[in-house]
Design goal:
mainly alpha, AhpD-like, 65% helix, 0% strand
């Protein structure tokens, strides 16, 4: 499955989603690794198997095995961190912020790809998961690494398009082809 296949599954009410999805492969403000890593990490973050599979298939020819694994690692580690740090940020009892997290997250320090690329994927996943503390932390690292506000905004825009694709497919659920049994 590919982006073209995903587009063919989108119903009429998702015309804007389809157009935005069509534009993703033509995005030129990011490196190919940054863009295609975003497709993988954000696709997994939707928790929609069709979206995740289609975007990984689209991205795989453009990513090294290490970059593909790193994009998956970004989605995985941020699934954990976004829950934990969103909780510490939102909890009225601020004592939780002073306790050690005791969560293993060494992949952030050694992701197997350029640190800025991993941080960009982590930022986009954090935006999808709604963790303001993680968004701020990753954005600061990206700015220090020299990424522009436009590049950072592009990553979040890509995440938004991918999230909307999954929602549109779920909303059209009764119109999707039945899975083979």
């Amino acid at each position: 499955m590919s982006i073209e296949d995903l587009k063919s599954l989108l119903p009429g009410f998702a015309k804007d989603v389809k157009l935005n999805l069509s534009a993703l492969p033509r995005e030129d403000s990011l490196t190919p690794q940054q863009l295609y890593g975003l497709l993988v990490a954000c696709g997994l973050t939707t928790r929609n198997a069709e979206v995740a599979q289609a975007l990984e298939s689209e991205a795989a020819p453009h990513l090294s095995p290490a970059a593909l694994d790193a994009a998956k690692a970004a989605a995985s580690i941020m699934a954990m961190n976004n829950v934990y740090y969103r909780f510490t940020h939102l909890a009225a009892n601020k004592a939780y912020e002073t306790l050690p997290a005791k969560l293993r997250m060494s992949v952030i320090g050694n992701p197997g790809v350029e640190k800025a690329d991993f941080e960009l994927w982590s930022l986009a996943v954090s935006a999808m998961n709604g963790c303001g503390r993680c968004i701020d932390a990753h954005e600061a690292v990206l700015r220090e690494a020299g990424l522009s506000e436009a590049q950072i905004q592009t990553a979040v825009r890509v995440a938004a398009v991918i999230a909307s694709t999954a929602v549109a497919l779920e909303a059209a659920g009764d119109r999707l082809p039945a899975a083979a049994e």
